[in-house]
Every structure is written in structure tokens, then in C-alpha cells.
Design brief:
Chain B: Its main location: membrane. Chain B: Pfam families: LrgA. The complex is a heterodimer of chains A (about 240) and B (about 130). Chain A contains 12 helices and no strands. Chain A is mostly helical and about 240 residues long. Chain A is globular. The model of chain A has no long low-confidence stretch (mean pLDDT about 90).
């Protein structure tokens, strides 16, 4: 084997190259996001996924070989999900006075978001694993992927639809809320955080601090409510 | 920092054990999140500084952590090609309908805030 081919075999199979490529793609995606003026459509996760997926397809590298390196990053999803309790606790202290009404709205809104996705997908004849991947669409990505795995969805597809839902909500949510006559900043934050998780929350925070706090609370509580209720209901109706 | 990371891992491990022992159809890390949230509520004080810093550091780069799984869509390109219409409609229409419905419900349920001006200015969408 020529030295060049040996190097290629090493790069395609050792975890170091995949891990490095993942971090480089992420840094490049952050650059592009900053250049775009932090536009919601230039979402860094989407850009990094497109760069790496394009690279794997172009070079003919197997996804499993890539994941053997990237899994070191993937592992941190679990601790990061646990860490979501910290901002949830901070927001909870901030919004304590309206906590009951906020919680009721978030649980109802989260259920509506899941049902709307399931209903549309079923009506258009999507495959069962696609419906299951869409069901946790409005929940923050790490939790949504865990739910999808539990109910027979494809976690990778879920990651992509969750991110897209966040982008849609962040970009068009304010327009829809104006149209629906929702002028209360707290209600606007709850709506964005329930339907488009962290991406929407980042947007809400940049517009109004009250909306941001309620959006953060909605993201955390909806993740919790959907993770606790959706697998149970799914088992009840599908099983 | 090591203490804070250990606390996160202990909560996650307890969550993973709980979902297997009971058994619950819920992701283990979510139960870990519930455990940590409950512990913070029980303390009745602001979150410990080291835990807060570690959580903020981890969550500031949350997007990076989805990338390896997201790249897994390369395995499902045929699914995407077949079901692109329900996928895009559910994402677009489902999300916007959920935002409108949740906003209306929240506005109806929340107690009126005396501090808010009657005609709150509508937010400008530009950053």
C-alpha cells in the first residue's frame, strides 16, 4: 500500500479524525452563523450537519466509522440534559407568581404541538417510524432524541426535524403571534418556548427579557411534560 | 468543576437505573434532570456556583452535542426522499399552529399583569 493510502485508511477509521472533523465543522458553522448576523436560517447545527454529511457522502465514509470518533461528543448529551435542570430552576424562581397558569398553558400547548405533528404526518401517509420521529418535534433536541428512541422513531431524523422546528418558530413565530393577537410578553414567550425550544428561546431573549424567561421555562417544562406523557400515551394508543 | 460534573453524572446514572428498575418509558437523563431539579428546589437557595458554571458551559455548546447524531440522517436519505412532504408540513404548519394555540391559551390563563402597559409594543423581528 502506498503511504497516502495508508494515511487515508488511518483517517477513515481512527476516532481522532472524526472527532477533529466534528469540532472543525462546528467552528466553521459558528463562523458562518456570525457572518450572517446570527440569522435564524443560518443555524449552526444545521450547517455543521450538512458539512459533515456532505463530507461523508463525498468521501464514501461509513457513518458508523464516523460515529466511533464522534461518540465522545455524543456522550455529553446525557449530562447536558441533566444540566437543563439548572436554567429551569433559575427561570422557575423568576416566574414563580404565574407558575400555575404558565405550567397549564405549557402542558396543553406541548400536547397540541405533538398531536398536530402526528396528525399531519398520519394524514399525509408518512411511514410509522417517521410519525414517531416527528412526535417529539417541539422538545429540546437531547430530550426529543431520547423520546424518539423510546417510541420507535429514528433519533437522527428527530434531531433534524427538531432543529428545523426551532428555526421555523424563531423566524416566523413572532409574525404568527401578532396575527393571533397575543400581545402579553409572558404568553409570547411561553408559546415560542413550548413550540420551538432553545432556538426560539434564544430569539425571545434577544427581543424581550420577560419573554425570554417565560420561553426558557416553557422549553424546560415542555421537555419534562412531553418526556413523561408522550411515551405513555404512545404505548397506550400504538400498543 | 469535577464535583459539578460528578453531580450531573450521578443524577444521570440514578435516572438510567430508575427507568430500568421501575420500568419507565422515559429517557434516563430526563429522570436525572427531574432529580437535580428536585434537589435544587429542596435546597431553597440559588444553584451552587460551580454547578451553575458547569451547566452554563455545557449548555452554551449544546448545539455541538447534537451534531454527531444529526449527521446520522445520511442513513435515512431514502426515508427523507419518500416522506419529505409530511415531514416539511408537520414541521412548518404544526409548529406555527402550536405557537398560535399556545400563545392564545397562555394569554387567557395568565393573571393580568398590572405592571404591563396596556398597549405593549409589538416586538420587531430584526435582530
Amino acid at each position: 500500500m502506498t503511504p497516502l493510502a495508508e494515511i487515508w485508511v488511518y483517517l477513515a477509521q481512527e476516532p481522532l479524525a472524526a472527532l477533529t472533523a466534528t469540532l472543525l465543522a462546528w467552528l466553521a458553522a459558528l463562523r458562518i452563523h456570525a457572518w450572517s448576523g446570527r440569522h435564524p436560517l443560518a443555524n449552526p447545527v444545521l450547517i455543521a450537519v450538512a458539512l459533515l454529511a456532505g463530507g461523508l457522502l463525498a468521501a464514501g465514509i461509513d457513518y458508523r466509522a464516523y460515529f466511533s470518533g464522534a461518540q465522545f461528543v455524543h456522550f455529553l448529551l446525557g449530562p447536558a440534559t441533566v444540566a437543563l435542570a439548572v436554567p429551569l430552576y433559575r427561570q422557575f424562581a423568576l416566574v414563580r407568581r404565574s407558575a400555575l397558569a404558565a405550567t397549564a398553558s405549557i402542558v396543553l400547548g406541548g400536547a397540541f404541538a405533538a398531536l398536530a405533528g402526528i396528525g399531519i404526518a398520519l394524514a399525509l401517509g408518512a411511514a410509522p417510524e417517521v410519525v414517531a420521529s416527528l412526535a417529539p418535534r417541539s422538545v429540546t433536541t437531547p430530550v426529543a432524541m431520547g423520546i424518539a428512541e423510546r417510541i420507535g422513531g429514528l433519533p437522527s431524523l428527530t434531531a433534524v426535524v427538531v432543529i428545523l422546528s426551532g428555526i421555523v418558530g424563531a423566524a416566523l413565530g413572532p409574525v404568527v403571534l401578532d396575527w393571533a393577537g397575543v400581545r402579553d410578553w409572558r404568553a409570547r414567550g411561553i408559546a415560542i418556548g413550548t413550540a420551538s425550544h432553545g432556538t426560539g428561546t434564544a430569539r425571545a431573549l434577544s427581543v424581550n427579557a420577560t419573554a425570554g424567561a417565560f420561553s426558557g421555562l416553557a422549553m424546560g417544562l415542555n421537555a419534562l411534560a412531553t418526556a413523561l406523557l408522550l411515551p405513555l400515551l404512545w404505548g397506550f394508543f400504538a400498543g | 468543576m469535577i464535583g459539578a460534573i460528578t453531580a450531573l453524572l450521578v443524577c444521570q446514572l440514578a435516572g438510567e437505573v430508575a427507568v430500568r428498575a421501575l420500568p419507565l418509558p422515559v429517557p434516563g437523563p430526563v429522570i436525572g434532570m427531574v432529580i437535580l431539579f428536585g434537589a435544587l428546589l429542596a435546597r431553597r437557595r440559588p444553584a451552587p456556583e460551580a454547578l451553575g458554571g458547569t451547566a452554563d458551559g455545557l449548555l452554551a455548546n449544546l448545539g455541538l452535542l447534537f451534531v454527531p447524531a444529526g449527521v446520522g440522517v445520511v442513513l435515512f436519505l431514502p426515508v427523507l426522499a419518500r416522506d419529505w412532504a409530511p415531514l416539511s408540513l408537520a414541521v412548518l404548519a404544526g409548529t406555527l399552529a402550536a405557537i398560535a394555540a399556545t400563545g392564545r391559551v397562555a394569554q387567557a390563563l395568565l393573571p393580568k399583569e398590572a405592571l404591563l402597559p396596556k398597549e405593549a409594543p409589538l416586538p420587531r423581528d430584526d435582530p
